[in-house]
Amino acid sequence: MNIRRRCVEILQRILEEKIFFNSLKAEIEEKNLPFANMLILTALRHLTALKQILNKFLNKKIPDKNKKVYYVLLLGATEILYMDTPDYAAINEYVNIARKVSDKYAAGMVNAVLRRVAADKDNLNTVFNNKCFPKEFKKILQSDYSEAEIAQLEESAKAEPALDITAKDNPEELALKLNGVLFANGTIRLKELKSKVSELYGFKEGWWWVQDLAASMPVNLLGEVKGKKALDLCAAPGGKTAQLLSKGAQVTAVDIDEERMARLRQNIKRLQLEQNLTTVTADGLEFLQNSTENFDVIVLDAPCSATGTFRRHPEVLHLKTADDVNKQLDIQADMLNAAAAKLTADGQILYCTCSAAKAEGENQIAKFLQSHPDFKLKAFDLQNINKFNGKLFDKKIIDKGVLRTLSYYMKNDGGMDMFFAACLQKSA
What we know:
Blueprint: H1 3-17, H2 33-45, H3 47-57, H4 67-82, H5 87-101, H6 104-119, H7 121-127, H8 135-142, H9 147-156, E1 163-167, H10 171-178, E2 181-182, E3 187-190, E4 208-210, H11 217-220, E5 229-233, H12 239-246, E6 250-255, H13 258-270, E7 277-281, H14 284-290, E8 295-301, H15 316-319, H16 322-326, H17 329-340, E9 343-353, H18 362-371, E10 375-377, E11 398-399, E12 402-405, E13 419-426
Parallel strand pairs: 5-6, 5-8, 6-7, 8-9
Antiparallel strand pairs: 1-3, 1-4, 2-3, 9-13, 10-13, 11-12, 12-13
C-alpha cells in the first residue's frame, strides 16, 4: 500500500480510536517509517490549525460515507503547509488517494481544496501560526498556568524535538564523539539524526540510552545511592533503572507490562548493568502491598495522564482531557501511601509524573504530606543537576523542594518535556 494512504488510515485510527502512534508503527514498513513519523507527527502538532484552515475552504461538511477523505485533506494540507513536498506533487498524491478511498466527487473536492491551500499558504501560515492547543487540552492547563505561560507552552509544541540521550559515564567525551550539545546534568542532545539510533556511536557498546532531558533530572536529585536497595515502580522502558544501576544501587524494577519489561531487560543488558538488577512483572500497587521487603529508595514514576509529553507525542493534545487527569489521582495517592509503608527509616520516595497538571504533581504531594507527618520534602541541591561542563540550569526548575520543568525552558536549545518530581524523606 502507498505510504501516504497508509498514513491516512493510521491518522484516522489515532483520532477516532484514541490510539497512540507508537502502537501502530508496526504496521509501517521500516524503510517508510522516517517519512511516516514526520508526516503523522507534523499533522498532529498542527491539527488544530489544520482543522480551522480546512473549515475555511470546505463549503459543507463531508458526508460520513466519505469520512476518510477528511484525513486525506489533513495530510495533504500538512505536506503543503509544513513540509518540503512541492505543492503540485502533494496535490497529485492526495487526489489519487481520494480516488482510491472514495469517489470521483471526492477526488475533485480534494483537488480544489488543496489547490486553494497551496495558493494561500503564506497567509494561512501567518494567520493560523499560533494555533496548536485544542480547547479541551487548554482546559487542563488553565487552572495551573497563566495565559502568558500557556502561550509559551503552545509555541513550544510546534517544534520537532531532538533526540536526548543519557551517558553511562564520560558525557563530555561522548558529546564530542556524537557532535551533540551537552547539558550540565549530563544529557546529550543530538539535533540532527543522520542514521538509525541503533547505528549511532556507542549504542552497541552500551555507553548510553535514550532519555528526555527533563526525565533524566529527578534521579540525580536523590544524592548518593551506591549500595542502597532501590525499588523502581512503573519502571519500563528503564531510563531511571539504568540511572540507579549506573550510580551503584541494587535495583528491583517493577512493571505491569511484560512486553515493556522485556524491553527494559534488553536495554539494561545492552548497557551491561544487569548485575545488580532484579525484575518483577507485576502491578506496582499489588507489589507494594504484598512485598515483605523494605527499601532505602523508592522511585515512583506514577501512572499519569502523560500530558507533559506533547512535544514527543502530539496525539496527547487531541486524546487527553481533564477526565484523564482526574482518573489517575486515586491510584497515585494509593501508590504513594503504599510506598511510604515499605520505606526504611531515613529512606526516600522519589515521586515523578510526566503530567502538565499540578493535580498529579504539586497537589498530590501536598496531600501526602498533610497525612504523613513523618515525611518531609527533601531540599534539592541544584549542584546535583549542574554537575558537568555543559549548558547550565537555573533555580526556576526547583522551587521549595520540588522540580517542575516547562516545555519552553531552555527553548533556545530545543526545550524539554514537562515533568514533575518531589523527593519525600522519611524521619530517621
